[in-house]
Input
Amino acid sequence: MAPLLDISAVAKRFGAVTALSDGALRVEAGEIHALLGANGSGKSTLCKIIAGTVARDSGRVHLDGAEVALSDPRSAERLGIGLFYQELSLVPQLTVADNIFLGDERTGRGGFLSGRRKREDAATLLARVAAVAGPGLTPDALVGRLSADQRQLVEILKVLSRRHRLIIFDEATAALDRRQVEVFFEILRKLRADGVSIIFISHRMDEIFAIADRITVLRNGATAATFVTSETNRTEVVHAMVGETAIRERVEHAKPASAGKPLVTLKNATSRRLHDVTLTLGEGEILGLGGLQGQGQSTLLQGLFGALPFARGTIEIDGAPHAIRSPATAIRHGFAYVSGDRGRDAALHGRSIFENLAPAAIVRERRFVFWPRQLRPRFEAAVKALNTRYASLEAPIGSLSGGNQQKVFIARWLATGSRVLLLDDPAKGIDLAAKADFFALIRGLAAEGVGIIFYASEDAELLSLCDRILVFNSGRISAELSGPTLTSFHLTHAAYGEAA
Output
């Protein structure tokens, strides 16, 4: 008997990036099938191809033994395929009932829209999670006023409101607590008993082994292995995720005489995405933040920079407590922040390279009036140190390649003499040569005593650069890696460990 879903040799490229090179997956009817893989392994891309939101470049997809095109989400819906989006697709201004049935409106007599039926059907769905829904989750509640876990429950119910044969849940439990996860799992078990197939993605290994019948592992855009859950263990699965040749390669950088002296100490930092995070950064240390994307790493960096101040916690700089409630305060204390999202967080679009270099120095030095000729030598020295290719400081920032733009935004901070560098996936989207220049610079700054906290979505970058790595899971530090534990295996094992 043919499986419900059979995917073979699926490939997908986005420009120069290969997201999938050889994706394969077989899902039986009435099966919960887990899909695992490290950051960038191709999990979400494969799921979007199945759901018709991304078109494959090559390969075959069979449903019930027949090849299908899956050219758009509507065609996938008609075939009975549903997708829970990792990035919530809810409309904050609409009610819970409106969101659940958006695009699948309830009608009454004569085919007219029926608000009463919509609210009744929404109430029936909400009853399935009532025990863990919390106050205020009603059909008429505005989604924008709900908590993160309540919005996640609404997104789940939105998928469950349709009649599907195959449902893909991509990180559906990310914002749920343990009680909510157990209720969700009871719903999945009932769906399985009714013959519905589930593709389940989670960063929590304990959830995978609690709910999945089988596990497929993707590695570097290709299917690496498939396991029967009851016949394998976590170590075997993690080995499949990292590969036999995943050996840590690093270039040791020289340490200053003061290395190890505490520069920044953070105690019990808590916010919407973080829970009691405590860490110490030494002078000349490169401290990595590991784990799957969206586990609180960027929130931590933005909190230290004052862009998303912590609700609770203390920050000490050189042993003295300081309140950092804004980026301006952080800059004056010697903090610098470099984001991988250049267009959103760094670039002054339509402005010159000089104007993109100037803001940090102006804020750090509290300049109300300045002469460009006073700053120009310092800026030129900073961009030259990064081997930046540019025509002149008057050239528009948009005339530079992505890698050279990122060098300008790093030079922005070098010109201020910052002591603490907060790097939020800074090498994302730049070429290999630019990355090599950038990583050499980071090692050089550390050798000069700059303290660096570095988050990267690519594990290899963390393992090659960092002295220690703090692994994040659900907004908490789940493990600290150093010395012999700085390996792909230990990093992946900690990232997919039990939810903290």
Remarks:
- The mean pLDDT is 85.
